[in-house]
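TICKET: design request
STATUS: open
ATTACHED STRUCTURE:
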């Protein structure tokens, strides 16, 4: 018997009921030109047409700990910060479930009567990855909840992004307009494309600097902004550009 999950034949899904799998158990999102790799803890990356030359978000295969970096949503409920996919905070959840389907992944995490569901998918014929986010209050008490999204942008050329550190720290460029974050590194200089990270819900803050969001001496498991409860509206020039929105 597998202690980590099972097949749901009727739903055509693989259901993972423990997040601490022996290795990252990943699914493939997308088709045509736009693809993503999504693990059972929301790890992985997204690329357009070419995983080496047009990688949109960062992921380090051989990271320590493994499966670190991805499409993260931090939930601030009272004074607790947690993730519906368990990582990176690894807060012990009351309930966790990951369902890998054909071209989509659904993650559900619950803690203290608050349930957060993430559905990741790429619509057919569209160059966009959607995070459909649903928050359910299963308790009788009113809740004051803040959500902080997080992606770390790859500077497109995956090998240079990982190896040429001095150059990488000099070229990062972003713009923010009405809460929408545009990653525009080398746009119109070496490439004719950019990355857009945006939210359809009203945004009360944003961050584009990894140092500001995470903290210079912190990690993704204890990021400074969610722990403080307030986005810093940081604008990065160079260094490590990210995308993060605060939604109350």
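STATUS: resolved
RESOLUTION: sequence designed for all positions
ATTACHED SEQUENCE:
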């Amino acid at each position: 018997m597998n202690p980590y999950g099972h097949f749901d034949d009727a739903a055509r899904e693989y259901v993972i009921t423990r997040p601490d799998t022996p290795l990252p158990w990943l699914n493939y999102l997308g088709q045509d030109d736009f693809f993503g790799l999504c693990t059972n803890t929301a790890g992985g990356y997204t690329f357009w047409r070419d995983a080496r030359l047009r990688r949109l978000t960062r992921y380090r295969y051989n990271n320590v700990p493994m499966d670190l970096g991805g499409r993260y949503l931090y939930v601030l409920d009272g004074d607790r910060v947690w993730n519906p996919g368990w990582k990176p905070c690894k807060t012990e959840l009351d309930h966790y479930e990951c369902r890998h389907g054909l071209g989509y992944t659904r993650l559900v995490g619950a803690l203290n009567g608050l349930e957060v569901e993430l559905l990741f998918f790429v619509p057919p014929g569209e160059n966009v990855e959607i995070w459909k986010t649903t928050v359910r209050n299963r308790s009788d008490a009113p809740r004051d909840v803040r959500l902080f999204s997080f992606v770390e942008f790859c500077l497109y050329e995956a090998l240079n992004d990982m190896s040429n550190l001095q150059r990488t720290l000099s070229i990062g460029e972003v713009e923010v307009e009405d809460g929408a974050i545009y990653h525009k590194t080398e746009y119109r200089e070496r490439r004719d494309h950019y990355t857009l990270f945006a939210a359809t819900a009203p945004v009360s803050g944003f961050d584009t600097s990894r140092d500001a969001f995470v903290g210079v001496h912190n990690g993704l498991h204890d990021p400074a902004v969610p722990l403080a409860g307030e986005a810093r509206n940081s604008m990065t020039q160079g260094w490590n550009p990210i995308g993060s929105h605060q939604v109350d």
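CLOSING REMARK: The chain has a mean pLDDT of 95. Residues 35 and 61 are 17 Å apart (CA to CA).
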